[in-house]
Amino acid sequence: MGQSIAAKEFIKKEFAQKELTKKDFTKAEIKEMLLSEGSAQQELFTQARLTRENVFGNSLKVRGVIEISNACVKHCDYCAMSSHNPKLERFTLDAETILQTARHIRSTGIPIVFLQSGQTPRCDDLLYKVIPAIRKELDCEILLCVGEKPKSVYEAYRTAGADSYILKFEASNPALYESVTHSALKKRMECTAHIRETGMKLGTGSIIGLPGQTLDDIVDDILCAISMKPDFVSAAPFIANKGTPFEQMPVGDINRTLNAIAIWRIALPSALIPTVSALEYIHPEGQAAGLSAGANVIAVNFTPKANRDKYAIYANDRFIVGLDHAQKTAKKAGMRLLLCASEN
Ligand code: 5AD
């Protein structure tokens, strides 16, 4: 396998000049890095880790995720929480359960409460209530990932006290996005702009290996995220989810996912990049591999046990990350979890 010219050139140029950013990769360079294997891939990962260490040292950020509802108005072909899946029993947590779970997250030293749900208006009033309640009681950051909303709703989340919001574009090719989600990419991108206008930090990202996705699509996804200059960016391998139109499709390629993480790390040095649980689902030690490729965030799952299995986001037997797993994964990658005691 040939050496990755792009990665080598990058190391030469950037480290000679002690620059930390490179945002002007060409499509050909991205493609070469995306396909890198063997020693070229190791070089890419080394470069990504050096970039991460320069910005973050060896610390691994931790988010405590609470999945507050599996109701969803969308019907994406890759997701079992689709409104077209009649078999899934739906749940929405109540405000007190969310608040108690947030207290539990904070008691472990995790400083970020991450509220995630399917896209449903039924969560809006709940969030207007729980965000200020969490804010009032706990010294933490609040991160949301609850879908496409009218601009006024994003503004209300911000006013309620949310700090950041993840809305991944999933696939930057409009035809692909529209064929797998049955909705318009333009609307999703407008939502992204609205999130930014509220002043919340923005997360984006894509799924690697979606059925119908070409290599050029992935290259464009990588470039698209770089051009958005997000605060967070995530690459997740596609998982064929039971009970969806895509249940027989092949899983996304782990190496392309790891290479995408590494490219984003190099191009967006201070972005938070998660090592997602889907990596661990498709490969033992997949999340440690994500850290070796330059990721620097892990989400620990705090969803009440009775509801967890119903949050069938990529599989009903998905990998549930516990704090002990996060600790072990950090250790394997020579990192340490960033936990801090509450000031309250
Ligand atoms: N495979 C991989 N990632 C998925 N997601 C949802 N379903 C799948 C799947 N089948 C990801 C999407 C979404 C995030 C919360 O989970 O990228 O933004």
Structure notes:
The chain is an alpha/beta fold and 344 residues long. It is 45% helix and 14% strand. The chain is built from 14 helices and 8 strands. Helix 1 (5-17) runs parallel beside helix 3 (38-56). It starts with a helix and ends in a 6-residue tail after the last strand. The model is unreliable at 15-21 (pLDDT under 50). The structure holds 5'-deoxyadenosine (5AD). 5'-deoxyadenosine binds at residues 78-79, 145, 168, 170, 207, 236, 238-239, 241, 278, 313-314.
Describe how the helices and strands are arranged:
Elements: H1 5-17, H2 27-34, H3 38-56, E1 59-69, H4 95-107, E2 112-117, H5 122-137, E3 141-145, H6 151-160, E4 164-166, H7 174-181, H8 185-198, E5 201-208, H9 215-228, E6 232-237, H10 254-267, H11 277-282, H12 286-292, E7 297-301, H13 305-308, H14 323-332, E8 336-338
Parallel strand pairs: 1-2, 1-7, 1-8, 2-3, 3-4, 4-5, 5-6
This protein binds 5'-deoxyadenosine.
Residues 78-79, 145, 168, 170, 207, 236, 238-239, 241, 278, 313-314 line the site of 5'-deoxyadenosine (5AD).
Shape by Cα distribution: globular
**Secondary-structure element string:** HHHEHEHEHEHHEHEHHHEHHE
Bound molecules: 5'-deoxyadenosine
Rg over alpha carbons: 19 Å
Distance between the termini: 55 Å
User: From the helix content, strand content and strand pairing, which structural class follows?
Assistant: alpha/beta
**Average pLDDT figure:** 94
Strand composition percent: 5-15%
Q: Provide the helix percentage.
A: 40-55%
DSSP, total strands: 8
Total helical elements:
14
Pick out the low-confidence regions: 15-21
Strand count, sense and barrel status of the largest sheet are: 8 strands, parallel
